[in-house]
Amino acid sequence: MPFLSFDRLDRYAVRLFVVPLLTALATMLLATMLQRLLRLFDIAASTGASITSALVAAADLVPHYLGLALPVAFTAAIFMAAARMGDDSELDAMLATGRSITRIAVPYFILALLLSMFNLYLFGQLQPLARYDYHVKMDAVLQTNWNAKIEENRFIDIAHGFSFSADSVEDGGRRFQGVFMERRQNGVEEITTAVRGKLETESATRKLRLKLEDGLRVRQTADGAISTARFADGFVEDFSPVRAPFRDRGESATERTLPELWLTMYSNPDPDSSAEFHSRLARALLPPLLPLLALPLGMASKRGRRTPGVVFASLALLLLNHTLQFGKSMAESGRLPAALAVWTPYVLFALLSLWIFRGSLAWPGDNPVSRTIGVLERLIERLKPRRSAKVAA
Predict the structure, then answer these.
(1) Which residues contact 18 (CB under 8 A, 6 or more apart)?
(2) What is the pTM of this model?
């Protein structure tokens, strides 16, 4: 059909859209992830973990922040593309040749449908798996440097049956004075004391070894035989902590995929699963509504009048995000059915966007928002002379 053909003007509209989309997306991801990155670096520094482990953990946060940034970046890109065409009078030329506003919006609706398909994978599969992987990696980071949590004159269980205590802890948990260590394994009890101790890391295996100086080791076997040995220095091999396995994925509804949430809703229904399912589905299906809002506002922002449209679009998306989150919370608490609590703000936003789009079909620079702003500006202008006259009087 000619109406749905992707012609040269459509490709031009997409080219105007791509650069603002990538710019807005990169800016928002950097802005939203910066604080979390600083926090991860602080955790890595305090636990002795490598910066690389913090960066790898931060990579698992990208799907979460991408889901937040995509609607805003998509709206901003359409707005900027429409404003650019309006500033260069290209919209007027298109309309003069018989191209309707609905036809101009076709490429953006196609992109919105493609984005919705990607969102179903992002919210339904990638985000829950990445969220669980992030928790696994953070658990590993927090357990990396057990000695950083050692307190003087307190016993802690390390690994491989070791119980460890030191009179004093120095050098960030790497050097000890007055070491006492007990180990029970396979019916053998072994007690080791030393004047000094130091943790060393093997370069090849990255395992920890405890080097003891001026010590005594007492060993009692299962048959009661006791042996004693003094040493000037010695190593306790493989002193690396054994990390406890992390919990299985799926204990939290946020870590389940959309198919898993669907099965849970019908096999063992609970408010958390229903709220999570409807919330993710609503966010995934949001992009087709965004051209209805962004395109009319962008067309009405000719000759530098972009601020009202930007402010209105930002407030509308911010309000939608908070109402979806509020509806999800209401559904999780059981106060409202999940479908009603989540889809009500979605439908209201859809009606608002459709109303603005239909109001702009007659002329690109005219829509309910621009008309309302025009009325307010005229009202303010009328009040100015009265205020000036009162001041003069």
Answers:
(1) 77
(2) 0.74
